[in-house]
Specification:
By secondary structure, the protein is an alpha/beta fold. Helix content is 49%, strand content 21%. It has a five-stranded mixed beta sheet with strand order 4-3-5-12-6. It has a five-stranded mixed beta sheet with strand order 9-8-10-7-11, sandwiched between helices. It has a two-stranded antiparallel ribbon with strand order 1-2. Helix 1 packs across helix 2, helix 1 crosses helix 3 and helix 1 crosses helix 4.
């Protein structure tokens, strides 16, 4: 835009008023100054914006077209000013959170419930996605905070731990009994059973793959699933042996609906927490971090 914004503002007010003297009073500037600004704008655009008469000014077709656009632009600016005023008066902000669907459902939601009760005016956006995408967006400053597993956090991000989680293998007792009946009591469950894991786009899968590689566990039958909820449901109907987060199936373990498969070497625990950038924090993020502490 080559023209000064003030020239468009003068044009806009004159077009609304239909009279230069009225626009001059609205803008607190002289009529000659308004006429000069309009002439400069017309010269720079190489069009005539107004026709003048003793009764005032009238927009030309070109002037009407420009007025439509300036009206939308100044309306957007007014909305922006109103939004800033609301933020000042009500401490409104925008908090952008990245989280996997599993962590969102089981871990983040209780935090958000309490946070929203205390800060109802803060706008919250949830990006439900893979942890790797959340980390990338945090590094690019397109997210404020992410709920992730600590091993995934890069050195440039700060981290507030929330809880430790344990990956385990589970199945129904009925599935195990049938498997041992068919394969014998000494059967290697991970060679003859149907092993169900998250797909390879998931960070949890990478963690489990490293463990299985370290201890020479090579499933012959493998079922890959996109979400932890599906893994749990498939395990509950006796479809196979699923690798799940223990804290998410504790109720099923306590009631006996699922049985944990004993491991000679348990999978290393992971720490879940909130990752964020220390620099250039928004007011909403600072409020959320204070809430966490």
């Amino acid at each position: 835009m080559e023209q000064n914004l003030s020239q468009y503002k003068i044009f806009y007010e004159v077009a609304k008023a239909g009279n230069i003297s009225k626009a001059a009073k609205e803008l607190y500037i002289s009529q000659p100054a308004i006429s000069k600004a309009i002439s400069k704008l017309e010269d720079s655009l190489n069009v005539t914006l107004f026709t003048r008469s003793s009764r005032g000014v009238h927009m030309t077709p070109e002037g009407e077209l420009l007025f439509q656009h300036t009206q939308a632009a100044f309306h957007a600016l007014d909305l922006g000013e109103q939004e800033l005023k609301r933020i000042r008066e009500f401490q409104i902000g925008h908090l952008r959170i990245g989280v996997s669907n599993t962590l969102c459902k089981y871990i983040l939601l209780p935090y958000l419930k309490t946070f929203i009760e205390q800060y109802p005016h803060i706008k919250i956006t949830i990006e439900g996605q893979a942890t790797a995408k959340t980390i990338s967006m945090l590094e690019q400053h397109t997210l404020d905070v992410g709920l992730v597993a600590e091993p995934s956090v890069h050195s440039g991000l700060a981290f507030i731990p929330v809880m430790d989680i344990q990956d385990i293998f589970v199945s129904t007792r009925h599935y195990l009994n049938n498997l041992y009946l068919r394969e014998g009591n000494q059967a290697d469950l991970f060679r003859c059973g149907n092993i169900m894991l998250l797909d390879q786009s998931n960070m949890t899968r990478h963690h489990v793959d490293e463990y299985m590689k370290e201890y020479g566990m090579e499933p012959k039958q493998l079922l890959e699933v996109t979400t932890m909820d599906l893994l749990i449901e498939f395990a509950k109907i006796g479809l196979g042996i699923a690798c799940v987060i223990k804290e998410l199936v504790q109720k099923e373990l306590d009631t006996g609906r699922l049985t944990e498969i004993p491991l000679a070497n348990p999978i290393r625990k992971r720490t879940i927490g909130f990752a964020f950038q220390n620099a250039n924090q928004s007011k909403a993020l600072k409020t959320f971090l204070e809430f966490l502490y």
